Amino acid sequence: PDGAARVPDTAAPVPVPGDAAPDPGQGDGPARRDDHLAPASCAQQGLWFLDQFDPGQAQYALPLAFRLRGELVLPALRQALDGLVARQASLRTTVLDDDGEPRQQVAPARPVPLVVEDVSTLPEEAREAELRRRLDDEDRRVFDLAEGPLFVAALLKTADQEHVLLLNAHHINFGGWSLGVLVQELSKMYGDAARGNAPCPVPPAMEYTGYAEWEHDWLRGDDCQAQYDYWCRRLEGLTALELPTDRPRPSSVSTDGDAVRFQLSAKLRADIVRMSAEERVTPFMLLLAVFQIVLARTSGQRDIAVGSPMANRPLPETQQLVGYFVNSVVLRIDLSGDVDFSEVLRRVREVALGAYENQNYPFSRLVAQLEPARDSARSPLFQVMFVMQEESWEQADWHGLSVELMGSPATTSMFDVTLSVSMSAHGISGDIRYRTDLFDKSRMERLAADFEHVVERVTRHAGADLTELLA
Questions:
Q1: Fewer CB within 10 Å, N side or C side of the chain?
Q2: Which residues lie closer than 8 Å to 128 by C-beta, 6 or more apart?
Q3: Whether this model's pTM surpasses 0.70
Q4: Which region holds residue 148: left if phi is over 0, alpha if psi is between -120 and 50, else beta?
């Protein structure tokens, strides 16, 4: 579960960790299909079974809020939303119970109901309170996977030249890379419609249902077995990360959460990019190394494993699809020994490249097959997540509108701690989402400060001693 805002997942489309390029050489998939029961992908199966086990949970809602400044052409926005949903079948897909197994059903394209509310006449304080309330409501939205819809839209007019567009999708049909696809297509269709050209969405070469069918075939092949063998070797002897908590860990997992947000300067972003090039790593790898050092400092452990979402789009036809492709991988780093930060980066690079090459093996299937010791108070294999994406969607042309992606409220947390960072031309923004039944905000604020401090230290000197960084 990806995850920027909350959709990281993290992202051209929004890239997922380390700019991992999909493998274009795995052949064509099945042709398009529509309005029938189709297999669910492995990722969808995992979320569907969770929903069956514990229905009515909101942590898999992925709300997006865009602040639109300028002269909005409302009919053009309606046309663009209709065109987007007509082109992207995942946005009109529900997931049904077919004799105990999840199956996808794609509905015919229809106009998207867009509720428009004018709150611009309210006093400023009341207007902001209403906006926060609506954002909180979307963050807590509970979707019915069988009945749908699993994609909804609303528009708030907050001033004469300002609106807030609220979109929300269930994670079962949406992932981090999908944000970039959605913004690029929605902005283009809006621009076309605003210029008087009705959007004419071209059907994609493959729909998500076709990818799910391809995946079921892939699971029976040799490459699938080789990836499973890789993860068995990588995860042998893995122990849980034990971060100090402010309260005893309850007997079952809670999803109540909050977030601490922080900002790294444009100068520090430039230092990160420079050092990454010098050390032959990506910014993702460098920031992952820093985060794992901070976790080691905090926990006292030296074998540190975190989860991270991967793009998992192995077919060229999937690059411009909205859908739940993202797959979690475990990035396990050995921080023992008398070494410097450059050696840590070398270790992280080796681990990350191995994960990229083996990112297609479904995480839910791996958990089921490895059968780790189950603990109802912890998520399996990892309890901490690291997410990074580039905000390349900022270059989208909205026909004169200034568009800002607003941060979503943090009322839920799927893991003990999730660090999300987004790179833009202005710097690096980050947030640490955490479980409030375990941690106080002050502890997470210290974690954010430690992260920035270590980034500053290592970008000044790649030869910094690991022992000193861990002290």
A1: C
A2: none
A3: yes
A4: left
